[in-house]
Design a protein that fits this description.
By secondary structure, this protein is of the alpha+beta class. Helix content is about 30%, strand content about 15%. It contains two helices and three strands, in the order αβββα. Strand 1 and strand 2 form a beta hairpin. It starts with a helix and ends in a 21-residue tail after the last helix.
Amino acid sequence: MADDEAAEANRTDCFLCNPNGALVFHEGSAGIALAGLGPIVDGYTVVASRQHVSSATDLPGLALKSFCTYAEQIRGKLVEIYGSCLMTEHGKAGLCGMGDDAQ
């Protein structure tokens, strides 16, 4: 693992890279699912990739495919429990102080 990859893997300033363990309800190789704070509806969930990117669309090819598969698995479970599920992408919303050049 390169030094910059190791630094990204050990981030502590991003709530998605270093989530509150009490909120995480599922972990996969491509992502994590955690209960959203201030839920909009029952089952409100945040799904994040394992890679620190500002948007899912910034994931490289295979990682994006793996993340989308993971997100769909979580969506399927939420549909089983709640009957429906709407998924959206937050986009590049600098939630952890990242600039446009983050990755």
